[in-house]
């Protein structure tokens, strides 16, 4: 296999953060020796998350076995996931915003047609549903645990407690038509084809506000691993948490 040098479009802060977490973990479990130092172990994990590099590519690039690559990446993701804020913790920042934008996104996964809970009739593919909260400038504030894509956005928002927490905090939230009937402080556009002029104007202004939230979706998909996940669905929530932590570290 040919090997060539590459780059990861992340700031050095992300490397320092992950290196520190891995070093602390090694001290905690009493690791005496490893093939790679904590700093070198962080690099393949970042390459996997950001660039979507496969285990085989990392094996060749770093000169370590596939099993070692798997253990290193899993350990790095677990070390980052514990740092991710819960929704209650994220509310401290959210309360300071004039409003937030709520939207759901599909993270494609590698599944067969028989896996019905993960199939999205809207997108015609298998995936996981992740709810995302962004600020008025489209900056990613919080991402929810992943649910099977067959879960409706409104159901997912209720299950995560997003609507209740935003309502209790009195924070206005703009969302799309999928959240019709959410109530509380959730603002959604009018549905229907033959709307009155003032309702059409309302929908236009609503769309201008809500479209800013698409920047957060682009931020998530900028981590190429999330464009097509080929791991166990039980690991996807931790991967999303790890990405969120690294994103905030590099912001």
Write the layout of secondary structure elements.
Blueprint (H helix, E strand, L loop, with lengths): L11 H18 L8 H14 L3 H8 L3 H16 L5 H8 L4 E10 L10 E2 L4 E10 L5 E4 L3 E2 L4 H8 L1 H8 L2 E3 L11 E2 L9 H14 L3 H8 L14 H15 L1
Parallel strand pairs: 1-6, 6-7
Antiparallel strand pairs: 1-3, 2-3, 3-4, 3-5
Helix pairs in contact: 1-2, 1-4, 1-10, 2-4, 4-10
Describe the structure in your own words.
- By secondary structure, the chain is an alpha/beta fold.
- The protein has two domains: 12-81; 87-231, no CATH class.
- 47% of the residues lie in helices and 13% in strands.
- The protein contains ten helices and seven strands.
- It has helices spanning 12-29, 38-51, 55-62, 66-81, 87-94, 153-160, 162-169, 197-210, 214-221, 236-250, and strands at residues 99-108, 119-120, 125-134, 140-143, 147-148, 172-174, 186-187.
- Strands 1, 2, 3, 4, 5, 6 and 7 form a seven-stranded mixed sheet that branches.
- A hairpin with a 5-residue loop joins strand 3 (125-134) and strand 4 (140-143).
- The longest helix has 18 residues, at 12-29.
- It is elongated, with a radius of gyration of 20 Å.
- The protein starts with 11 loop residues before the first helix and ends with a helix.
- The mean pLDDT is 90.
- The overall average pLDDT, rounded, is 90
Helical run tally: 10
- Derived structural class: alpha/beta
- As a percent range, the share of helical residues equals 40-55%
Order of helices and strands: HHHHHEEEEEHHEEHHH
Distance between the termini: 36 Å
Q: Tell me how many strands there are.
A: 7
Beta content comes to 5-15%
As a whole number of angstroms, the C-alpha radius of gyration is: 20 Å
User: What is the global morphology?
Assistant: elongated
> Into how many domains do the coordinates divide?
2
Given as residue ranges, the uncertain stretches (5+ residues, pLDDT < 50) are: none
Largest sheet: 7 strands, mixed
């Amino acid at each position: 296999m040919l090997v060539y040098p590459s780059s990861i479009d992340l700031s050095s802060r992300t490397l320092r953060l992950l290196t520190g977490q891995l070093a602390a973990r090694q001290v905690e479990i009493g690791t005496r020796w490893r093939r790679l130092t904590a700093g070198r172990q962080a690099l393949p994990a970042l390459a996997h998350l950001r660039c979507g590099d496969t285990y085989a590519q990392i094996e060749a690039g770093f000169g370590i076995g596939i099993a070692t690559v798997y253990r290193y990446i899993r350990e790095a993701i677990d070390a980052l996931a514990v740092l991710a804020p819960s929704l209650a913790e994220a509310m401290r920042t959210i309360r300071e915003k004039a409003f937030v934008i709520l939207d759901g996104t599909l993270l494609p996964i590698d599944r067969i047609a028989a896996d019905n809970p993960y199939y999205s009739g809207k997108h015609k593919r298998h995936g996981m549903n992740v709810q995302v909260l962004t600020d008025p400038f489209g900056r990613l504030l919080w991402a929810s645990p992943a649910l099977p894509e067959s879960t409706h956005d409104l159901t997912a928002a209720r299950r995560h407690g997003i609507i209740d927490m935003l309502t209790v905090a009195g924070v206005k939230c703009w969302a799309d038509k999928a959240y019709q009937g959410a109530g509380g402080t959730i603002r959604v556009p009018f549905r229907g084809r033959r709307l009155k002029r003032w309702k059409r104007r309302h929908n236009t202004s609503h769309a201008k506000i809500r479209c800013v939230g698409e920047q957060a979706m682009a931020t998530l998909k900028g981590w190429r691993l999330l464009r097509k996940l080929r791991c166990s669905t039980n690991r996807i929530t931790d991967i999303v948490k790890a990405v969120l932590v690294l994103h905030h570290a590099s912001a």
